[in-house]
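Explain my protein.
***
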Amino acid sequence: MHELDKEEIVIPEEIALIPLRDMIIFPNLVVPLFVGREKSIAALEVAMKEEHIVALVTQKMTELQEPDIEDLYGIGTAAVIMQELKIPDGTAKALVEGLSRIEIVEFTQTEPYFRVKVKVLPEQEDKDIEVEALMRNLVLQFERAASLGKPIPQEVLLATSNIEEPGRLADFIAFHLNLKIDEKQQIIEAVNAHDRLEKVSIFLNRELEILEIGSKIQSRVKDQLTKTQKEYFLKEQLKAIQQELGLMDEQAAEMEELRAKIKAAKMPKEVNEKTLKELDRLARMSPQSAESSVIRTYLDWLIGLPWQKKSKQKLNLKEASTILDEDHYGLEQVKKRVLEYLAVHQLTNKMRGTILCFVGPPGTGKTSIGKSIARSLGRKFVRISLGGVHDEAEIRGHRRTYVGALPGRIIQAINQSGTNNPVFMLDEIDKVGADFRGDPTAALLEVLDPEQNFAFSDHYLEVPFDLSDVVFITTANMLETIPAALRDRMEIIPYSGYTEEEKVQIATKYLIPKQVGEHGLKDKNILIEDKALREVIREYTREAGVRGLERRIASICRQIARKVVEGEKKRLKITEKNLHEYLGPRQFSYGLAEEADEIGVATGLAWTEFGGDVLSVEAATLSGRGKLMLTGQLGEVMRESAQAAVSYIRSRAEMLKIDKNFYSEFDIHIHVPAGGIPKDGPSAGITIATALASELTKRPAKREVAMTGEITLRGRVLPIGGVKEKVLSAHRAGIKEIILPAENEKDLELVPKEVKEELKFFFVKHMDEVLELALRAKSKNGPKSAKAAKKQVSALNAN
């Protein structure tokens, strides 16, 4: 038997054992114990008959109903049974007080209850300074836990401050902590008081951390609730004050009005959610704040956009054809392609097809064809000009963070049209530029791609807008400046210049009636005869389109209007004879073929963004050392053509009967007049060679013959582009014969029949054929040879 210090109770060496579930009994603590299992009740009965002493040991696994020897921990507590109460359902309740830690030495019996031999484990309490510090720290931690909200009675806190034994203090505090069974078992097994204090301190510190985090969360939630409640009460008070004063809550009324507009706009779900979110932000803001006006403007844009508004489409192909013919004379190929485009749309009922790009000289009806398409579809027509646009934000808009931010031109035009399916014309797409502010053409890639524009994103809106129902049409004067990626998204429809007959018809049917009406005149006031009209076309304009012609007609109408206001009552006729009285002296000469042939001057055909043009190429030889001079603002390609022409002439010196050494004895000067206009391209090669050959052989070039084609060093004539425009320009200038590369013969199909009937075409493969056709026989008055030419030039220079 072992006797505890300061205690009269003696713990027997062999005692009954009760397994515990979900609890551990610490020494020096009184705890109620509920006993329900048969073995445990039997052990309790035996203990009551003996010394009232029982071993209380916790089982390792809580769920075991009948634990075995190996299912129990080896260290537990010996306790004295202070009271026992039997309950009618067969269970019992006992009040026990822990006496001391015990270690199971041996199980002497397992049935009908556990009986064990035990060894008392005496307390090891060496109270030094470190143990004292641990005790004080433990008490402070326990009090801190109570202040953070842990439910610890006040008497328990007082008791901890009165306990002087280290081991007992650790057991007391551990009992009142929410520890797991295995953690409490660690404390039971810690016989040394110092170790026990450390373990309890660690567990208590962890509990403190949990309590502090919980306290912070609780405080934060409380603050939020307090702030929300405060705002609610203040708003209610403000509302009550306004009602008492008879004032309306203008902001609330405005918010309700905006909410109703948002609902009526029928936006897509994600756009609607964002709009309502911005509205809630606006409602919480002061109306005087700067950001309030920004959000209000943003909401106005979102509400104003035609998310679901469409023009009711009425497409009849015959009616569309009639409208195109009413609005435009000629342009048969263009009309044909537009009608094909509309036919596909009528069959598929969607416009997710190719984007049309009208390319041609100014004044040929590109923009007006777009208006006719809109009229035939029954849709709104909107147009934006991209000429000179250098900022990507012009297309995509600015972000709202910028002062004065607005959506891009695309969204602005859609908003202006009031529908989400207008005919949208992007004018002058070839004149878009790029700089440090971005590349607008890159933004247009998304706009003009049918696979992407169903969710076009504007930087200002920051929500997708569906452009897939919009009919996009673009216009350009030339293709070279349009990026390849953008050009790939469009179908190019070329526009060529009008013939003289077409211009006469356009002026008679459209331009004259239009200008007469715009100037307040009537048919009884003015009559422009056909001959006078043709003279205006030939001698006062030289263009592919009809804008210049319209300006001349407007000039005549203005002068007639003045005479009518001054009292003129008779109908004024404009004839060939009096035309100069209205328009002044003629500006262009018509009929170059009527002028005299000249040596060293050949007539070439060129293509520009304004249509075809006729230009003269002059060649001159001067005494020198073979220097080649090129003037007239010639581009690099044209300079190379001139060098190739010189090489060809050198290779044909014997055939042309000129001095083989002319290139070292003469300086050659090649000039293309109209020096203020840049010129480039390979198609002037045969013209330069002809002019040079004419100068060296002194054979005059035929002025009624115009030519175009690229030349190689061996004299081959290669094909060129822009044949239709060049032929039309030759026709306008009164040229009778045209020399073209043989491979360009197929391109004449595009030339109007009436033009082809008035011209004679020669198709050549080699430069020798060109010289035979373009040069006349040697002038009788001219030098007989290249040497004589040299002498004549020397004599002129000497004089």
